[in-house]
Write a structure and sequence with these properties.
With 394 residues, the protein is an alpha/beta fold. The chain contains 14 helices and twelve strands. Helix 5 packs parallel to helix 11. The protein is globular and about 60 Å long.
């Protein structure tokens, strides 16, 4: 018999993917250059030349077994050591390779983190607006995801709602900063307050409440924005990272779990990740990709284009009367729709080949997300479609 829960999911497909598929199909009709597709968070800037150079050199210099064989179950030791030294140097921490586990992207990292600290029935809290795939990431582990309502004034944490929802069943809190979909970066003040509450509640309930920090957009922070390294402020932090956005390599599926060395049993937790992999099939990410990222830990793609695109859109949206909190990072902007029903709003935009994503699935109805990781000239060209859309419909 087929598994019913996955049959049920067929009727709950990702709205992001569905709209992206619509945009591609529409592009076949009128030319994709004429479809202003703001649906998918797929990095648009080239991979750093140094990364490609590393791949070419590795193929020439290393053995086939080193590059294409299975790596150690926790990741290649030299790579883990390089990752630990990089993040320790950058953020004044003291990670060693024993605090690093290599994964197939941030999704793989979160899959391990959730299973490290929960058993079926335990609860994990996250904050709206949130990446909708957190639902299956958590719920399919047997844990239960609970979503704290948003603070739409600034999209920092709604602490009043959070404190009313945290309970003895809460084993972890999952944060994402810089945030998909809002583009907001949690301030140092926000992280410190969150850490204080978690310490207080951990003591009250007699067990550690872990902080799982999902950080694939860590490097995409705009000029002058306060962007704290979350683990510096809370010992029991499990950092989940992906190189997908910093190096523009989402298809290479590479990231890591980094457990704060001050976390109790940190080294044991890393070894446990290797055992978790046996049950979820995330074993041994690509060896050649591990080697390549280890040589490019302190470089990024030319991510400055994202801030440029953000400013273009922010200025236009605000001039047209949209309410929008200015992003501090990522490549997303999150305006309030011009009517209460953001699904209806986005459907009307399709008539102008202006494709955004309604935020109902992000637990923030009435808003929509634009992923501006597209060519800047296309951002400029999209403005006329947006103006016409707003003028004729609103």
């Amino acid at each position: 018999m087929l598994a019913q829960k996955y049959i049920d999911m067929l009727n709950k497909k990702s709205v992001i993917r569905e709209l992206s598929e619509y945009a591609v199909a529409r592009g076949k009709e009128i030319g994709y250059e004429n479809v202003f597709d703001y649906t998918l968070g797929n990095p648009s800037v080239p991979v750093p030349e140094s990364y490609n150079d590393s791949l070419v050199r590795l193929i020439k210099e290393k053995s086939a077994m080193d590059l294409h064989g299975y790596s150690q179950s926790l990741g290649i030791r030299e790579v883990r050591d390089a990752v630990a030294k990089s993040i320790s140097r950058r953020f004044d921490m003291n990670y060693t390779l024993d605090h690093i586990f290599m994964t197939s992207g941030a999704a793989g990292a979160i899959a391990h983190a959730v299973r490290l600290v929960t058993v079926p029935g335990d609860e994990i809290l996250t904050f709206a607006p949130y990446f909708p795939e957190y639902g299956p990431y958590v719920n399919h582990s047997g844990a239960v995801l609970k979503v704290v309502p948003p603070s739409t004034k600034d999209f920092q944490i709604n602490f009043e709602a959070f404190e009313s929802m945290i309970s003895e069943k809460t084993m972890a809190v999952l944060v994402n900063s810089p945030n998909n979909p809002s583009g907001i970066v949690y301030s140092t003040q926000t992280i410190k307050k969150l850490a204080d509450i978690l310490r207080e509640k951990s003591k009250e309930y007699g067990h550690i409440i872990y902080l799982i920090s999902d950080e694939p957009y860590r490097e995409i922070v705009f000029d002058g924005v306060d962007a704290p390294y979350v683990a510096k402020y809370y010992d029991a932090t499990i950092t989940c990272y992906s190189f997908s956005k910093s190096l523009s390599v989402p298809g290479d599926r590479i990231g890591y779990v980094a457990i704060n060395p001050a976390c109790p049993d940190a080294e044991k937790m890393i070894v446990m990740c290797g055992q978790i992999s046996r049950g979820i099939g995330h074993n041994c990410p690509s060896a050649i990709i591990q080697w390549a990222v280890s040589e490019n830990l302190d470089v990024t793609s030319d991510i400055s284009v994202y801030e440029k695109n953000m400013n273009i859109l922010y200025d236009e949206l605000t001039s047209l009367g949209f309410e929008v909190v200015k992003p501090g990072g990522t490549f997303y902007i999150f305006p309030k729709a011009l009517e209460d029903d953001a699904v209806a709003f986005c459907n009307k935009g399709k008539d102008y080949d202006f494709i955004g994503v309604p935020a109902d699935s992000f637990a923030c109805p009435g808003y929509f997300r634009l992923a501006y990781c597209i060519e800047t000239e296309k951002v400029y060209r999209s403005l006329e479609a947006l103006r016409k859309f707003v003028k004729e419909k609103y």
